[in-house]
Amino acid sequence: xxxxxxxxxxxxxxxxxxxxxxxxxxxxxxxxxxxxxxxxxxxxxxxxxxxxxxxxxxxxxxxxxxxxxxxxxxxxxxxxxxxxxxxxxxxxxxxxxxxxxxxxxxxxxxxxxxxxxxxxxxxxxxxxxxxxxxxxxxxxxxxxxxxxxxxxxxxxxxxxxxxxxxxxxxxxxxxxxxxxxxxxxxxxxxxxxxxxxxxxxxxxxxxxxxxxxxxxxxxxxxxxxxxxxxxxxxxxxxxxxxxxxxxxxxxxxxxxxxxxxxxxxxxxxxxxxxxxxxxxxxxxxxxxxxxxxxxxxxxxxxxxxxxxxxxxxxxxxxxxxxxxxxxxxxxxxxxxxxxxxxxxxxxxxxxxxxxxxxxxxxxxxxxxxxxxxxxxxxxxxxxxxxxxxxxxxxxxxxxxxxxxxxxxxxxxxxxxxxxxxxxxxxxxxxxxxxxxxxxxxxxxxxxxxxxxxxxxxxxxxxxx
Length: 464
Hints:
The protein is of the alpha+beta class. It contains 20 helices and eleven strands. 27% of the residues are buried.
């Protein structure tokens, strides 16, 4: 720990909770033990790392800017407490296990607290560069505001572990793996009931109320003992903020300042990187198209990725920006608002066949297809319904109990049966109006492709 009265040659950094944090998945699945305040300081540092940085830079902050984010310990002067945290950071160790080797790193190589001036200077250890920079694949990005609102170190770690699997919508971890990731000592929360109430329940409440994802969890048992947890992950459309959080929130929830052009560009860079776009493509996109066009098409691509409609986001987002799919989609909704999709997938025009039969008899195949889609929605809508039906069925079966492994398998089986029934209804209605079955390749979701292919084969076999 060094004390310096000399002004350091580093630019003064601001703290913006809208900045993005991008980490290698290796780091997210590593083992380390930090206090909540230490976690927040390191996350603030991580939010300053830019995708085009060549090295991990040194950052200098005003001490007072940390006050509302880091928090304070009762009975301790804030500046003394912050000095203690900054000093302690240099002793904290990160453990990384790769290819049979265990490596231990210090988090920071430089930590200077300028008491008289009220500044803090921090720098990540250079050896951590590969965990924050030049990330081509296997990384996770999220906005800083999602984690600085959380008041438990376990909530922060669980958020990252689930955010990593947000696209897949679920993640299963053994209790042993989860305790390892969270760095919980063997003697702490030994009884599962304590672990559930002190770790899982707290994280669920915080993450569901304060972040951009939500989760439910299913307890998987071996015999009578809970041995694994299956997390079911959903994306929240917006941060819920103060209005949906009953406990008192820190002043962080005040409306953030308008982002500068540089901050907007940095955010777009991070989002494009997270979709797998190469640096040279990012540079071209940001110079060729307006930030507004890039931003809305990134969001359009992310929405389609969440629902499993696309499998190659790095190429799709570029095409989307070029052709401005997002704007075209918005305009089509204005011209012709999409009618709500019926859960049972039975369109009104089929129910009222007497009034519509002549229309279909006198229509071309293209017109039939258009009318059918107008009542039922698009292929994407159909896939979304099947996915929702499957997940909802499993939740209903497993709700409010501690299922055995056999019960979990039974829930999956019932969910699959429900999906197949809806595919059968859809096929029947298409045949009634003279349309061919959907093609397997029409499905973007790979799992639904397999299910639908098997379904069509079973229909062919039954007809023979």
